[in-house]
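We modelled each protein-ligand pair independently. The example shown here corresponds to the zinc ion entry; the chain sequence is given first, followed by the ligand as SMILES.
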Amino acid sequence: MAYHESKSATYEHISSPAISPDESIAIHPIRQSAQSNPLTKKEISLLAKRFSGKLLLRQEIEMDELLFSHLVSIHAFRPVPSIITSWKGETCQRCGNQSKALFAAMPCRKCQKRCIYCRKCIEMGRVLACQPLYEWTSPTIHWPSIKDPCSWRGSLTAAQEYASNRLIQALHERGEMLVWAVCGAGKTEMLFPVITEALKQGKRICIATPRADVVRELKPRLLQAFPKVSIQALYGGSEDKTGTAQLIIATTHQLLRFKAAFDVMIIDEIDAFPYNKDASLPFASNRAKKTPSTTIYLTATPRKEHQLLIQKSSFRMCLCLSAITVTRFLFHN
Ligand SMILES: [Zn+2]
Ligand SMILES: [Zn+2]
């Protein structure tokens, strides 16, 4: 695929969250009405769309304290501990950090004590031990089943078609699959049928990649291929960070804000930096998946560990495609 050859690859730099102007407008009438009247169904569904499948700090939830307290009191938002301490030490519940060196303590204005915080994910906002993370509990969102979502009319080679049929099979079986495909194998197009099938079934999909430039490149291609579908691109510096679309393209760092959000998780370049070096990224991508879900891993250069898994048949299938023709298929069932 062309983006593998990009020489100006830029990697994700985490930045503070921002609520889009649209979203602020959407929440504003809710804020007004909650002070005197119960929330309407429409308002609740707007909130569910905004916060379902997320794991957020209080400061990432843009709403006034009155409404927020109300939503906590009716258990729409559930507080979960942000840092858990056990005999093994601390674990950050947002990024999974357990390294002692990546925790520190500071005098805390909120609890008036010295408070532990996580240094590893601090660029996404400080996780303090005394401040919980919040997850939305109900109601859950039902994503629309989209009839004929794909307008791409190109054709796949016989090999790509065979591979994409296997991906659809994995979707039905809700399993894990590793696709080993060299640069230029036409991975994106090969994914279109499985994305199409998932959208027809009303599933929510995430395509995650370590590289922000790949996210930026994929967005217009997917918008063109799936014009009826809500699609957002999330990366450090992206305009929209609300993450409310049915099809999300995101840098793996952005997955730190999701929990049980996606029916289909496609992770590109699992063997590329920083995904292969930073344990918090596989941690976050696992948490961002629903149970059950389908996971598709893409790699051009599988690590030894993955090659071993392939040999042991731990992954259901592995494909090895060349740029022009299929050089070989390896199937392990
Ligand atoms: Zn952390
Ligand atoms: Zn504190």
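The CA atoms of residues 217 and 295 lie 22 Å apart.
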